């Protein structure tokens, strides 16, 4: 019996494909390499993306709207490609090898981007009148950016899930540590982002874009080295086959049996007799009473057996049906994150453009680039993450009695409120800024004498909202995902970032088209002093409030996943 407790009971194996020894693998000793990898990878990502809107304006000679839309489109793609990595990880390669493969693509993209900013012939020619990029130079630059999008997207859904795999959910002590892992995982992201948004942005604006992109490229190579260094300590979940195939099997089987009545006795529904599900190394899921139409797929009828074998396109297990139900139940929660991501995307676009018009001096000689103000978002996250983990959870636990202080849904809801406040604060600042411009007739002044540090509160609220909503999403989607779909479900909150960026692009485009009718300058002209960016912030605040009200209704009716047994 004592020997049983030497090994993880969640189906994980070690690097030699043997059952994972709990004393020799996993836990924090393995996670330090994963956290190091994530810190350096995020430094690389934010090091080239935080100031990207300025790079497109300065080196590719793009206007405010074009540069802003190109950044949000690219950023959106970075958060759609996780679906590719997630599918390959769950179905075929496993999380470890998926991270390894897409990291190589990532490194190629970072290297090519550095070359477009530093190698003669690839970087645009510039003079005192600006830069004049050729079409081929623009194409190569965007090729590099979208290789990075594929690489970063491929590994995004796998790294957090792979880190969580290092803790056995069937061991109470390790399960508690897993909850803390998600907090520290997000903290490591923001340590990398802190360096990127401060040091690297300054280098890009004051030393050169070659160095500014070269250092993030080196950081990415270090990230890959850190990841591989921990290989012998990792626990590995074996891929469980295509989750998409299993989903379609349930859909096809339930539609074939649309005329079949579902029995009230759930024990009459088909399930394997083994301790684990028919997906090797995965727990069974308990039958739920919601979405009963899909239960038809688990009702046995004549014709389900073909030559003595069960056709999975005609008869599915309860666990397989519950996998689909779990995904369907997650979708409304997933959708509620899109508006939040739209708000978050403003930090790399509208916040930067707003800051470009303000006094960026720190003392008489030093100027802080407007994109570097995102470091206050990062500092907010770095401050609130340990405060939440060590203080807020303990205080909340006394009142709620919940092990984690708040339920994951409550935690995300608090973040949605904070993101709404962030937009209100940004709107108030823009009203004050525009009034200052009008009073002093500063319409054509490049930098108005109003400190850029007035932007700090809006960054601070966005950072605080991240700690509640984003970390809550990562933990929620991992916990509520079926065992064999964890990478896929980890990709779901990432796709909200993509859709949030695309929605931002759509909103900016619609607003620009509607407000420039009859020759008007519009809300977001190239000269921000003659625009009405505050109206755009009010629009986002209203959408955020409506989104929160819908979220309250969604969270009230959500049913949490339940397993019927443990492995091992």
List keywords for this structure.
568 residues; mainly alpha; two-stranded antiparallel sheet; two-stranded antiparallel ribbon; 16 helices; 8 strands; 4% strand; globular
Secondary-structure topology with pairs:
Blueprint (H helix, E strand, L loop, with lengths): L26 H23 L2 H7 L5 H15 L3 H37 L6 E3 L2 E3 L2 H30 L7 H35 L2 H21 L13 H14 L48 E2 L2 E2 L7 H18 L1 H9 L4 H6 L2 E2 L1 E2 L3 E2 L6 H27 L7 H33 L7 E4 L4 H25 L5 H30 L17 H25 L11
Parallel strand pairs: 5-8
Antiparallel strand pairs: 1-2, 3-4, 6-7
Can you characterise this structure?
There is one protein chain. By secondary structure, the protein is mostly helical. The chain contains 16 helices and 8 strands. The protein has helices at 27-49, 52-58, 64-78, 82-118, 135-164, 172-206, 209-229, 243-256, 318-335, 337-345, 350-355, 374-400, 408-440, 456-480, 486-515, 533-557; strands at residues 125-127, 130-132, 305-306, 309-310, 358-359, 361-362, 366-367, 448-451. Strands 1-2 form a two-stranded antiparallel ribbon. Strand 3 (305-306) and strand 4 form a beta hairpin. Helix 4 packs across helix 5 and helix 10 (337-345) packs antiparallel against helix 16 (533-557). The mean pLDDT is 86.
């Amino acid at each position: 019996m004592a020997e049983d407790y030497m090994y993880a009971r969640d189906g994980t194996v070690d690097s030699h494909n043997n059952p994972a020894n709990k004393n020799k693998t996993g836990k924090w000793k393995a996670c330090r390499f994963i956290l190091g990898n994530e810190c350096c990878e995020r430094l690389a990502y934010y090091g080239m993306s935080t100031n990207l809107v300025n790079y497109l304006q300065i080196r590719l000679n793009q206007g405010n709207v074009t540069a802003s839309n190109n950044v949000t489109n690219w950023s959106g793609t970075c958060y759609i490609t996780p679906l590719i990595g997630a599918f390959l990880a769950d179905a075929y390669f496993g999380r470890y090898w998926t991270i390894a493969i897409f990291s190589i693509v990532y490194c190629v993209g970072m290297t090519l981007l550095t070359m477009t900013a530093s190698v003669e012939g690839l970087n645009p020619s510039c003079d005192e009148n600006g830069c004049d990029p050729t079409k081929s130079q623009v194409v190569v630059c965007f090729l590099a950016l979208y290789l990075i999008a594929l690489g970063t997207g491929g590994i995004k859904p796998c790294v957090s899930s792979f880190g969580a795999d290092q803790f056995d959910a069937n061991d109470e002590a390790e399960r508690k540590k897993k909850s803390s892992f998600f907090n520290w995982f997000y903290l490591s992201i923001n340590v990398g982002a802190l360096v990127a948004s401060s040091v690297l942005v300054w280098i890009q604006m004051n030393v050169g874009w070659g160095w500014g992109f070269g250092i993030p490229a080196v950081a990415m190579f270090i990230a890959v080295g850190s990841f591989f260094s921990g290989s012998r300590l990792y626990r590995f979940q074996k891929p469980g086959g295509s989750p998409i195939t299993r989903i379609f099997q349930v859909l096809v089987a339930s539609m074939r049996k649309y005329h079949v009545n579902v029995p009230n006795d759930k024990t009459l529904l088909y399930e394997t007799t083994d301790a684990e599900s028919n997906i090797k190394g995965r727990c069974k899921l308990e039958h739920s009473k919601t979405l009963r139409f899909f239960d038809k797929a688990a009702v046995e009828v004549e014709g389900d057996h073909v030559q003595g074998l069960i056709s999975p396109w005609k008869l599915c297990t309860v666990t397989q049906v519950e996998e689909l139900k779990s995904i369907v139940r997650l979708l409304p929660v997933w959708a509620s994150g899109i508006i939040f991501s739209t708000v978050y995307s403003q930090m790399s676009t509208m916040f930067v453009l707003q800051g470009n018009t303000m006094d960026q001096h720190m003392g008489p000689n030093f100027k802080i680039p407007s994109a570097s103000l995102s470091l206050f978002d990062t500092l907010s996250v770095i401050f609130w993450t340990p405060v939440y983990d060590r203080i807020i959870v303990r205080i909340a636990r006394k009142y709620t009695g919940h092990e984690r202080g708040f339920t994951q849904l409550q935690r995300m809801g608090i973040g949605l409120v904070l993101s709404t406040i962030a937009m209100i604060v940004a709107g108030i600042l823009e009203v004050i800024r525009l009034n200052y411009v009008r009073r002093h007739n500063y319409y054509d002044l490049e930098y108005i004498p109003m400190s850029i540090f007035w932007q700090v509160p809006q960054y601070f609220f966005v950072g605080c909202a991240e700690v509640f909503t984003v970390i809550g999403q990562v933990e929620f989607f991992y916990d509520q995902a079926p065992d064999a779909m964890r990478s896929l479900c980890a990709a779901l909150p990432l796709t909200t970032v993509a859709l949030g960026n695309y929605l931002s692009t759509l909103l900016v485009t619609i607003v620009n088209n509607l407000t420039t009718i009859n020759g008007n300058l519009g809300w977001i002209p190239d000269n921000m002093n003659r625009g009405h960016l505050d109206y755009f912030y009010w629009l986002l605040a209203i959408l955020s409030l409506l989104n929160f009200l819908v979220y309250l209704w969604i969270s009230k009716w959500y049913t949490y996943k339940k397993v019927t047994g443990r492995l091992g």
